[in-house]
Design goal:
By secondary structure, this protein is of the alpha/beta class. The chain is 34% helix and 15% strand.
Amino acid sequence: MAVAAYASLVSLTHVLDNIHYRAQLRRLHVDIKQIESLQEAVNFLLEFLEKNHRSQSQKAEDLWKQISEVNFEIEEIFDLHVVSQLRKDSQGESSDMGARSFGEDLDTMIQKVDRIKRELSMVEEVVVGSRASVPAAGSSTAASSVGKNIIVGLEEHVTKIKGELARDNGNLQIIPIVGMGGIGKTTLAKKVYEDKYAVDRFDVRIWITISQEYSVNEILQGLINNGKVERHCGNSDGPGEMLRKKLYGRRYLIVMDDIWTLQAWDDLRRFFPDNGNGSRIIVTTRLSQVAGSLGSHDPYPMTFLDTNTSWSLFCQTVFGEENCSHPELEQIGRVIVKNCRGLPLQIAVIGGLLAKSCMTTEYWESVAENVSSFGNSSDGEHCLNILLLSYNNLPIYLKPCFLYMRSFREDAEIDVSYLIRVWVDQGFITIKEDKSLEELAKEYVNDLLDRNLLFVRDREFGTEEILSCGIHDLLRDLCISESKKENFLCTPREQEISPQSEERVCFLCSVSVTETRNFLALDVIPPSASHCSPPVCGHCKMTYSHMKGLRFVKVMDKDGVAHDSLVQHTKLRYVYVSMHNPPKFISPSTLHLLWNLQSMKFKKSEVVVLPSEIWELPQLRVIECNYVVFPKPPNAHVEEKDFFILKNLQLLGCAKNLEFTCEILDGIPNLKELWIKYDKHMRESDSCLNNLSQLQKLEVLSVKNTLQNIGYPNSLKRLALRKCRIPWSGMSMVGSLPNLEILVLWDTAEGSEWNPTEGEFLRLRLLAIAGSDLEHWGADQDHYPVLENLVLSNLPSLEEIPSGVGDIATLHKIILRNCSKSAVDSACLILEEQRSVGNDILEIDVSDNSDYEFEDEDEDED
């Protein structure tokens, strides 16, 4: 219960911070001294748990449970009283009586917390007591392994599978790879799939992962869209026929990763045409029976690593090199490796644990003792115990984040930016003065990657920044089992609002609901005269069975009609609206009653008009949709102006036709990411883009469809300009930005000649130019001294790429799409010259298709 208690305490610190901020600015009637007393007590409990969370005593477990229950009760009291006060204030009613009741309830809570503090002094601080526990690891001395794809012992397997791809048999062949979870099936398939031979040989390559609970249509959509599930509207063909047409007559390689049943294969096989040209399908599975029934090829078995290969993988994981760099640890290290039984996942996870250790003999011996204790277990139990050992030794601040991974579906590709956002929204990240919550959450992601508890799925071209990650099925199972033990995730904080239909969906998780009875006694705050309680699914009934009730609000349209499809509860922190045309917010609205809201996302929606009450949500960190009309701050008295500041807002996108007055920018001072779009009516108007230089923490800026002068803050790291019509001479202002790393110019730069000046673009790593009349480019290695990737698209007039560009020592890749023949010839000449001087790093990628995507390609009306 320690993790649940810790997570609830961290969440409570954010709630208390919100309460304290509102009270200081007199937007909430509460005794600040009471709040500060609670803050002090909560910080004490956090520090105690950080030091003693490994205690094994029953007394400690009972107290952890009490902490969780009291924290939940405190958050419930806050929600009750804060919402009540906000509602009365908006209606012009007095909240004096409520304030007195609020104070009395807080006194009761403070007494309960103090009682727990007194009992904690009786808890034995047992950190090392049971046989299955290991002392906490110290700081790592090994190099970070984030992003390192450590492939050891697969060379022979790769060669054999490549041989099967190249066989003379032209018929469609199915190649099953079989082995237990964690043995390296997916890693092998990925290595073959990405091999240059496969890339050159096959016209179409598609990777798709099959989960235990699969949908045939979703798999087919994924195969059509090269692994991404997207819906195709307006096509009379079903997805199966669309796939058949896509593959017909072409040599294709498809990897179907992690098939669990023969039925999954039977449901799909008829859609793969046998073109008689050497097409291949690689299937990975844990089940020998499934592998043996696929027909055309004997299953390829994955076996355990031998002793030498296991040791090599272990050293690469722990030390970042092939051998043990700490001779005093080699003997005990070999004992640890032996007891991992040659299973790559176990070696990688234990290696990740030890890479984070202080590299002492005592610590390694304690790990070896525990690994050895699992020696007589079955393979499944042995593997689980190994993984549990690594989980148990996580710092407690990482455990809630790791356990949250259970909420993603099996085999999911998890967007890292979303993962960071949802950890922040859930309240898992501890507040620190020197770093933002997002920065800390990013460090947590990297830490879990370092420990091999997560793995990298995709990286951003040009920066190698991690875009998406995944979690192995066995580790996800561990998250599920440990979450149940911990009673983790006990308060609903996210909500997805889906399109209205005849089918009823769960109010809390948006899955289909077959029964209409509710388990929650919902305390309705009525924005309209009529209301009904929303439905809740059976899973949520069990998950949140301890809850007595929720308060909820409804969004009303311009006619004053409350929409049941847009019900939101007042404890909500993240709302995701996937309706195409949601009702527009109006003022006065009930939005401010969602007083802890942190993220709002509207997917594929039309214009979202936000009410002025948005300025009453100081916790808000993200507003994201296709177009959002952002209101001006309300007129306020001098003493109230400080409250109407979205001090935590990090991302705003995409703002449509917004006039960036100093007044608005003063209200979003800490914004880090901004996307702006203008329509044809606003393109030439003065919307104050020159004022953007006022945003001194802005790191990412995307501007589309404007002819205005833009003020660039020096903090910018990424800049994307589309249809902004800036002469090449105006690029000097961009080049002078001291922190700029990525620049994308799409139908923006005008003129036939660009002569950059030395001393500009000193940190630029990626330069992408698309759609320009550029003919002469006077550049060399001094103009972009650290450039790593150059992308040129739709430049039909460009005479050549300056030869001096090839002399940039850091340059890795030049991509040309639909450029002039002379530009392509110059790129090839650059490559030849660099090869002649021993530069084997530079690559040239040329194509006549304009298939390189810089950003979302939705078209504006010009």
